[in-house]
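sorry to bug you again but im stuck and you know this stuff better than me. what follows is a protein written twice so to speak, once as letters and once as structure tokens for the fold. id like you to explain what the token line says about the fold, in plain words if possible. anything you notice is useful, everything is just below.
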Amino acid sequence: MTDLAFKKITIMLLCVSLLVSCNQESKKMDKVALVEKYYQAMNDSDYSKVTGMFYDSIRFNEMDNTRTFTNERYRNLIQWDSVFNPKYQILDIKEEGEELHLKISKECDRIMFLQGRPFVSKEVIRFKEGAIYSIDIVEYIDFNDSLWIANRENLVSWIGEHHPELNGFIYDQTKQGALNYLKAMEFYKNREDSMTDKERN
């Protein structure tokens, strides 16, 4: 083999290696871009975009609770969520093997009412054939469980006594259920405002 032929083969091998490396990097970037688009679609409550990013069914594993949604059931959940004006923010994102590990902040009217600050969690997203396969919430970082439960119980108890027509709002994960939840929070806040006004007088 001549020096010229050897140089040509070496250059070709380097080019192939570079192309493979670039392709792998592109795939990594695609995962991050896909997840960024997913959370933007969640902020926009864009059901069509969100479901189009999943492999087939929508799988959510929240600690020990595993839930799998059909597209129709997930559409109902997004409609419910959208009523509370959610804002999702990616605080951190890292690639570990074939997974993405994220720190996610979620703020919405319901969360701010129940704990007074955004809910922060660690999540793991898995992929299959270029689509999201599952989303696992593996740790609650900023979740005040005792405050959340106390505020929720106070709300449910007060609504049951003063606005029984809204009973069941806490379990109804439809758009109408969310609208009833908003009404319940508004009634409760107005009740607190009127009590404060009386104290001032």
Notes: The first helix runs from residue 3 to 43. The radius of gyration is 24 Å. Residues 144-190 form one domain. The chain has a mean pLDDT of 85.
